[in-house]
Automatic annotation (TrEMBL):
GO terms for cellular component: ATP-binding cassette (ABC) transporter complex. InterPro entries: AAA+_ATPase, ABC_transporter-like_ATP-bd, ABC_transporter-like_CS, ABC_transpr_CbiO/EcfA_su, ECF_ABC_transporter_ATP-bd, P-loop_NTPase. PROSITE patterns: ABC_TRANSPORTER_1 (PS00211), ABC_TRANSPORTER_2 (PS50893). This is ABC transporter ATP-binding protein. The lineage of its organism: Bacteria, Bacillati, Bacillota, Bacilli, Bacillales. It comes from Paenibacillus apis. The keyword Lipid biosynthesis does not apply. One of its GO terms (molecular function) is ATP binding.
Length: 631
């Protein structure tokens, strides 16, 4: 990132007075009987860095749309309550007036980009406000976001991460006091996600901006945010400092919100230790219940680490010397054998032979997206396609689905050459769930969206299938709602239900866990497991490394349109240079495993907690490197 420009001039703020004050706000969308906001109240002080969390449909995005006046001025519905932003009444101010105070980057940030080039886009807002220094403002915003070298580039030439940063620059060009970013890391590879958050941190620390993020990824909240606001059924349940908030494990679990992996590991280890005291690991659930009861009755809750750095110190203290736990000394046993990956069936379902895909640009030059990809994918494999934004993951899925035709080489699916078979015929065997859910919506209700393909193709039992999908993806209460008016997470669930309804032989999912809370994410994995008897092969293009480590039997890494690696998750994540080059990142569990020198790396918090527990019980030897000097 370039050197930071001089801080923008800031008006002095009264730090004791809320910059945003929401009082008893209720709001109901047209066509819905249930309010999305139900007496919500919230106060945010100037200079805060706040995360808004909650389950899908809890009202997070709706709450933030109060801040710039989109509700009640743009979105119609039943509105009650009072909203004040930077001293202005939101009800008595226009969206244009509030937008000078509040910058907003939406979930679907690409829809905010309306001009052809990067500089044009950054100039758009101040130019439309008639500000004479619009170009200087745009230049400063691009420099803040590290986009100055791309000023003359066309928007369509940018990667997803660059587009997200450009949407951020567009919001910053009006130099607002408040910046709201809805799902900053969704659809971004880990390295671009970290880059977006680093920009937000600098805006907060150097320029004193008030930052509000709507976020599902607790690891980013732990690393960057100062306080957390929990929304449940349209109400603000609590607003707490980040460390205390992410240790409210009961509240987070109840609402399907995933705490940081290191926090889960520490809690799981405590439960295992308590279970040992109770007489065996089979009593772990009793121990968990007991711990929850104790924590709920305590005013000062015992806190667990929330960042990898904290966790390394926390666990290193435990492992710094061989100890005898609970007065028991066990003979060292060999570590339990690692579970082997299920063997894939030998029958090839998808075959790519030197497949290439090239687009013709507006400059009349060829832009290669995929470069001679050769892969054989067998029946029964669970494939994760990973790589940075622009690596070619979505394009590869489109080739397999027949949506795009290879410009060189061949692609065959179930023996069908995608160059000659019709898209209609191929779609009977292949279901494609798009990265942007709204691209799949053509009807005026959720029920009709799921039923559309089933009815068009005269599937037997279509009505029963739709009802089953509504239940499986928690969409029953939304069945009559227009899917285009739902929250991002709800739209994702609808798109997954559409794809799963036809039980295809091959299922292609493009970023399926983006915008999803923990409960829906778990439902997705459960649904995929249930569909295994019908779906021969599943390919998922994803930036979700937790999903990769938990679900995939095979990981294919794409970089600049070519296959950079192909193997198990353990093999891929062990290659540090590859991870850096391909825009990947280790999960917190993997980072902590590496920091404690535990080999092989553990894939999930429960596995890591069990491993540490065995070491503490002297049932597994402690690697020398896991005994760091504590300073």
């Amino acid at each position: 990132m370039p050197n930071m420009p001089a801080p923008l001039p800031q008006e002095p703020d009264n730090q004791d007075q809320p910059l945003i004050q929401i009082s008893s706000v209720s709001f109901t969308y047209p066509g819905s009987e249930q309010p999305v906001l139900n007496g919500a109240s919230l106060a945010l002080k100037p200079g805060s860095f706040t995360a808004i969390i909650g389950g899908n449909g809890s009202g997070k995005s709706t709450l933030c749309k109060l801040f710039n006046g989109l509700i009640p001025h743009y979105y119609s519905g039943d509105f009650e309550g009072e909203v004040r932003v930077a001293g202005l009444s939101a009800q008595d101010s226009t969206v244009a007036e509030l937008s000078r105070k509040v910058g907003y980057v939406y979930q679907d940030f690409e829809n905010q980009l309306v001009r052809p080039t990067v500089l044009d886009e950054a100039c758009f807002a101040p130019l439309n406000y008639g500000l004479p220094d619009y170009r200087a403002r745009a230049t400063r915003a691009l420099e803040l976001c590290g986009l100055t070298p791309l000023a003359t580039r066309f928007i369509w030439e940018l990667s997803g991460g660059q587009k997200h940063l450009l949407a951020l620059a567009g919001a910053l060009s009006l130099e607002p006091d408040i910046l709201i970013v809805d799902e900053p890391v969704s659809q971004l590879d880990p390295q671009h996600a970290r880059q977006v958050y680093e920009v937000l941190r600098r805006l907060h620390r150097i320029y004193g901006k008030t930052i509000i993020v709507i976020e599902h990824h607790a690891e980013f909240i732990a690393d960057y945010c100062h306080d957390v606001c929990l929304i449940e059924q349209g109400r603000v349940v609590w607003q707490l400092p980040v460390h205390e908030a992410l240790n409210r494990l009961d509240d987070l679990h109840r609402l399907g919100i995933q705490p940081p992996e290191v926090t889960q590991t520490a809690a799981a280890l405590t439960a295992l230790q308590c279970a040992t005291l109770l007489g065996g690991e089979q009593n772990q659930q009793d121990a968990v219940d007991s711990l929850r009861a104790d924590r709920s009755n305590q005013q000062d809750v015992t806190t667990y680490p929330i960042t990898t750095e904290e966790a390394q110190r926390y666990f290193a203290r435990m492992l710094s010397a061989p100890i005898e736990l609970f007065g028991r000394h066990k003979q060292q046993d060999s570590p339990p054998p690692q579970a082997s990956l299920p063997a894939a069936e030998s029958r090839t379902v998808i075959s790519l032979k030197q497949a290439a895909l090239t687009y013709r640009t507006i400059r009349k030059t060829d832009h290669p997206v995929l470069r001679g990809v050769s892969l054989d994918i067998a029946e029964g494999e669970r494939i994760a396609l990973v790589g940075n934004n622009g690596a070619g993951k979505s394009s590869l899925l489109r080739l397999i689905a027949g949506i795009a035709k290879p410009t060189a080489g061949t692609v065959s699916v179930l023996g069908q050459d995608t160059r000659t078979v019709s898209l209609e015929q191929l779609s009977r065997d292949v279901a494609f769930v798009f990265q942007n859910p709204e691209d799949m919506f053509i009807e005026d209700s959720v029920y009709k969206e799921i039923a559309h393909c089933l009815n068009k193709r005269s599937y037997e039992g279509a009505e029963a299938t739709v009802e089953r999908m509504l239940r499986a993806f928690r969409l029953e209460e939304l069945r009559e709602r227009d899917a285009r008016l739902l929250s991002g997470g709800q739209q994702r669930r609808v798109s997954l239900a559409i794809g799963a309804a036809t039980t295809p032989a091959v299922m292609l999912l493009d970023e399926p866990t983006a915008n999803l809370d923990l409960a829906t994410r778990e439902e997705l994995i459960s649904t995929l497991q249930e569909l295994e008897q019908h779906v021969r092969t599943v390919l998922i293009a994803t930036h979700d490394m937790q999903l990769v480590s938990r679900w995939a039997t095979r990981v294919i890494v794409l970089h600049e349109g070519s296959v950079a690696a192909d193997g198990t998750a353990a093999e891929v994540f062990a290659d540090t240079a590859l991870i850096q080059r391909a825009g990947l990142a280790l999960t917190q569990t993997m980072e902590l495993s590496a920091g404690l020198n535990l080999r092989p790396h553990c894939s999930d918090p429960a596995e890591l907690a069990a491993r540490i527990h065995r070491i503490l019980l002297a049932k597994e030897s402690l690697p020398h490197g896991a005994r760091p000097q504590l300073v």
